[in-house]
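The instructor's notes for this session suggest beginning with a concrete chain rather than abstract definitions. Hand out the sequence below and ask the class to guess, before any prediction is shown, which regions might be ordered.
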Amino acid sequence: MSESHAKPQPEGREGYKAFRAISTRWMDNDAYGHVNNVVYYSWFDTAVNAHLIEQGVLDIRRGETIGLVIETQCNYFAPVAFPQVVEAGLRVARIGTSSVRYEVGLFVQGEPLTVAKGHFVHVYVDRASRRPAALPAPLKKVLEALQ
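After discussion, reveal the predicted structure:
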């Protein structure tokens, strides 16, 4: 098996630049007694967008540039269930002219290895025209700090 097709493995915290604690909710558990897979994608969104809002580079109501998700993926290594707390680790793998690939590692609070990890790609567009827009300089600076 080639390296690019190697089975994904859990990672440690050292590869991530920023962390956010996210409480699981009762409704996150599914019929099998663990957090349903679709919830992990909402955690990715929460980790990225909350970080950008806190850094002052995302104005979800009035910003001229917004990020639209065009690709997402997740690998799962161990189950999570309510009432655990998840810590989402965040890093940026690639910055393009108008796009960013974020990578998120999910950890059960205090644990050393990811229970899941994945990525999503935002393409930044003009809010009004929905056409690709260059990354604003302040946003690019925040993204570079996550590389």
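Then share the key points. The two ends are 28 Å apart (CA to CA). The mean pLDDT is 95.
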